[in-house]
C-alpha cells in the first residue's frame, strides 16, 4: 500500500508539531486528574472522573491523529517561489463580483492547516483549485453555498 503525502507549509508543520508537544505535556495532568477523581469513591456517579476520562480520550485521539498527519506531511518550501502565477503557498488578493470595493485576501495552504477565519484556504477547496495557475487580471467563477461568485485576481504574493 502506497503512503500518500500531503502538502503543508513550513508554518503549518510547525503549528502541528507545537500542538502535538502541548498535548503530550498535558498527559501527566490528565493521569493525575483521573487518579484524584478515583480517590473520591463511586466512579459511576463521579463527574470529575468521567470528565477527566473524556478529556484523556480526546487528547490521545488528537495525539494519534497529529502523529499520523506529521508522518505523511510534505513541506512545500515557498521561500523561493516567485512569479506571477498562483500556486500552493500563494497569498492572493481577489476582487469579488467585479466590485473594486469588495476584496478578499486568501493564502492557499494544505488541507490540514486550512482555516477560513484566518484567510487560509485549502488547496483542495473549490476556490483555490480554480485559482491555481491563474495570473493577475484573470477571472474565475466559483459555486459557493450562496450561489455563484466571480473573482478577479488583483495581486499574487509568496510570503
UniProtKB/TrEMBL annotation:
<comment type="function">
    <text>Necessary for efficient RNA polymerase transcription elongation past template-encoded arresting sites. The arresting sites in DNA have the property of trapping a certain fraction of elongating RNA polymerases that pass through, resulting in locked ternary complexes. Cleavage of the nascent transcript by cleavage factors such as GreA or GreB allows the resumption of elongation from the new 3'terminus. GreA releases sequences of 2 to 3 nucleotides.</text>
</comment>
<keyword id="KW-0648">Protein biosynthesis</keyword>
<dbReference type="GO" id="GO:0006354">
    <property type="term" value="P:DNA-templated transcription elongation"/>
</dbReference>
<dbReference type="GO" id="GO:0003677">
    <property type="term" value="F:DNA binding"/>
</dbReference>
<dbReference type="GO" id="GO:0032784">
    <property type="term" value="P:regulation of DNA-templated transcription elongation"/>
</dbReference>
<dbReference type="GO" id="GO:0003746">
    <property type="term" value="F:translation elongation factor activity"/>
</dbReference>
<comment type="similarity">
    <text>Belongs to the GreA/GreB family.</text>
</comment>
<dbReference type="InterPro" id="IPR023459">
    <property type="entry name" value="Tscrpt_elong_fac_GreA/B_fam"/>
</dbReference>
<dbReference type="InterPro" id="IPR001437">
    <property type="entry name" value="Tscrpt_elong_fac_GreA/B_C"/>
</dbReference>
<dbReference type="GO" id="GO:0070063">
    <property type="term" value="F:RNA polymerase binding"/>
</dbReference>
<keyword id="KW-0238">DNA-binding</keyword>
<dbReference type="Pfam" id="PF01272">
    <property type="entry name" value="GreA_GreB"/>
</dbReference>
<dbReference type="Pfam" id="PF03449">
    <property type="entry name" value="GreA_GreB_N"/>
</dbReference>
<dbReference type="InterPro" id="IPR036953">
    <property type="entry name" value="GreA/GreB_C_sf"/>
</dbReference>
<protein>
    <recommendedName>
        <fullName>Transcription elongation factor GreA</fullName>
    </recommendedName>
</protein>
<feature type="domain" description="Transcription elongation factor GreA/GreB N-terminal">
    <location>
        <begin position="7"/>
        <end position="75"/>
    </location>
</feature>
<dbReference type="InterPro" id="IPR028624">
    <property type="entry name" value="Tscrpt_elong_fac_GreA/B"/>
</dbReference>
<dbReference type="InterPro" id="IPR018151">
    <property type="entry name" value="TF_GreA/GreB_CS"/>
</dbReference>
<dbReference type="InterPro" id="IPR036805">
    <property type="entry name" value="Tscrpt_elong_fac_GreA/B_N_sf"/>
</dbReference>
<keyword id="KW-0804">Transcription</keyword>
<dbReference type="InterPro" id="IPR022691">
    <property type="entry name" value="Tscrpt_elong_fac_GreA/B_N"/>
</dbReference>
<keyword id="KW-0251">Elongation factor</keyword>
<feature type="domain" description="Transcription elongation factor GreA/GreB C-terminal">
    <location>
        <begin position="84"/>
        <end position="157"/>
    </location>
</feature>
<keyword id="KW-0805">Transcription regulation</keyword>
<dbReference type="InterPro" id="IPR006359">
    <property type="entry name" value="Tscrpt_elong_fac_GreA"/>
</dbReference>
Amino acid at each position: 500500500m502506497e503512503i500518500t503525502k500531503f502538502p503543508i507549509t513550513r508554518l503549518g508543520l510547525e503549528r502541528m508539531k507545537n500542538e502535538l508537544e502541548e498535548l503530550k505535556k498535558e498527559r501527566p495532568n490528565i493521569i493525575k486528574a483521573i487518579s484524584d477523581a478515583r480517590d473520591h469513591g463511586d466512579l459511576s456517579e463521579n463527574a470529575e472522573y468521567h470528565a477527566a476520562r473524556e478529556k484523556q480520550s480526546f487528547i490521545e485521539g488528537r495525539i494519534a491523529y497529529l502523529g499520523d498527519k506529521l508522518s505523511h506531511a510534505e513541506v512545500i518550501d515557498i521561500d523561493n517561489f516567485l512569479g506571477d502565477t498562483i500556486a500552493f503557498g500563494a497569498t492572493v488578493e481577489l476582487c469579488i463580483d467585479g466590485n473594486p470595493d469588495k476584496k478578499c485576501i486568501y493564502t492557499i495552504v494544505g488541507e490540514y492547516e486550512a482555516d477560513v477565519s484566518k484567510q487560509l484556504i485549502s488547496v483542495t477547496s473549490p476556490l483555490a483549485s480554480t485559482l491555481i495557475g491563474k495570473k493577475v487580471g484573470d477571472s474565475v467563477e466559483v459555486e459557493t453555498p450562496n450561489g455563484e461568485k466571480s473573482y478577479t485576481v488583483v495581486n499574487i504574493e509568496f510570503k
